[in-house]
Amino acid sequence: MLKYNVVFKFEVDGIVDKPDIIGAIFGQTENLFGEEFDLRELQDKGRLGRITVELRRRDNRTEGEVVIPSNLDRVETALIASMIENVDKAGPYNIKFQLVEIQDIRAEKLKKIIDRAKEILSTWSKEKTLDIREVLNEVTSSVRTGEIIEYGPEKLPAGPNVDKDPNLIIVEGRADVINLLRYGYKNTLGIEGATGRIPESAIRLSKQKKMVIAFLDGDHGGDLILKQLINSDARIDYVARAPQGREVEELTGKEIAKALSNMMPLGQYLKRQEAKAEVREARTATLAQTVQPQEVVVQEQRPEEVITMPNTVLEEVKKLPGTLEGIIFDESWNPVEKVQVRDIIPKLENGGSNNATYIIFDGVITQRLLELASERNIKLLVGARVGGLTKRPKNVKILTFTDMLT
Q1: Which of 105, 128, 153 finishes a domain?
Q2: Which of 55, 81, 105 is the last residue of a domain?
Q3: CATH number of 147's domain
């Protein structure tokens, strides 16, 4: 696909024809910058298109326009334009070329697509009308995502205005930056996940800004990154979070706008998190007082089958509420591994944790999870709550944290 049209106007001190103009262009640019920029070679390779000439004769003079289609990059196209402006003879006559413009063909094409999309929407029946902003965001997303740059020596993913805008939005990674670009947020910087250290260029940039927003996923990973930002020397003024369990990279434009409108000053956000932690501690304290300290006994459907939960396991359970994490135990209640709640189903589907016998997690016990537990001979599931279940396999016992208080 051709990228640019390079448009010139020219004047000749005499009467010439189109072949004279084209011959002058090819002849006087030959080997100026080696074979790599020979116009005939570039045409043969499809890097330049067919040169078109329109001319007019007036008072023993010739004038007109030349258009050269280019599939080269911006720098190479500019060099070709400069070479042609250097042509000064057409046959025996003086000729002067002047660059008029370099048309971005892709931008023109996208503009036509967007304009046509507006026309389609305006004639669509009201019952079928979509949100025009969302549609246009989709139409132009390829342009906006193409604007992503690399910032600093760490080559962090960033929006094109990350240096110029007085405000800064810090996100986790490249996918978050791309999604925000889709909806016009160009002052973003990705710090590339919870790597244990905030990049130095991100810290320096934050100190140069009028306002800095940490916009993070609504999961435990987002909590970890916020802690790293706070413990670093970075400036953070506000905190915005994706909805619980969601990631910034998957949010729609409306969801992004809502999350940013609900952002909190850092101090206020931390106080709210402390209050939530106190509530969790109060709940776990009640749990510890209510459940017998030696063991938790779970009576199965068949009277002779009893599951005994050691007190050491109960201590681990107290720490789970609010973490979105889970622990997989073997038959002897030895911890096999600690996992994110969202990874439990994929792990069971892929045959992971072969020694799994009991699973306790801060999430919802769903029908799919229950069926997988039954297939893998899991004896007990303990979750934060139970979803809408239609069938309950007899070989799996289910409890919630609330059940354990009774």
Answers
A1: 105
A2: 105
A3: 3.40.1360.10
Q: Is 114 exposed, middle or buried (0-12, 13-18, 19+ CB in 10 A)?
A: middle
The pLDDT, as a whole number, for residue 351 is 77
For residue 135, is it left (φ>0), alpha (ψ between -120 and 50) or beta? alpha
Asked whether the predicted pLDDT for residue 347 surpasses 70, the reply is yes
Are the C-beta atoms of residues 379 and 398 closer than 8 Å to each other?
no
Whether 84 and 153 map to the same domain: the answer is no
CATH value at residue 30 = 3.30.70.2690
Output the DSSP codes for 180-247.
Answer: HHHTT--SEEE--S--SS--HHHHHHHHT-SEEEEEE-SSHHHHHHHHHHHHSS----EEEEPSTT--
* Boundaries of domain holding 233: 141-262
pLDDT band, very low/low/confident/very high, at 135 (cuts 50, 70, 90): low
Residue 310 forms part of a structural domain? yes
Closest to 173 measured CA to CA, from 213, 222, 209, 208: 222
Query: Is 258 in the same domain as 147?
Result: yes
Model confidence over 220-246: pLDDT tens digits? 888 888 888 888 888 999 999 999 888
Residue 359 CB: number of other CB atoms within 10 A?
27
Domains contained in the chain, number: 3
Distance from C-alpha of 316 to C-alpha of 312, rounded to nearest angstrom: 7
Nearest by Cα to 175 from 157, 151, 154, 198: 157
- Check which CATH number belongs to the domain holding 364 and give it: 3.40.140.20
- Domain annotation covers residue 123: no
DSSP 404: G
Residues 99 and 12 in one domain: yes
C-alpha span between 272 and 181 (Å, rounded): 30
What confidence score (pLDDT) does residue 158 get? 92
Flag whether 366 is in a domain: yes
* Strand pairing report for 61-70 and 335-340: unpaired
Q: Is 194's pLDDT higher than 70?
A: no
Whether residue 232 sits in one domain with residue 311: no
**pLDDT tens digits for range 266-325:** 889 888 888 877 766 666 555 555 444 444 445 446 444 567 788 888 878 778 887 788
Q: How far is residue 233's CA from residue 310's CA, in Å, rounded to a whole number?
A: 43
Give the tokens for residue 68.
């050269």
Is the same domain home to 235 and 330? no
Which of 201, 147, 153, 200 minimizes the C-alpha distance to 174? 147
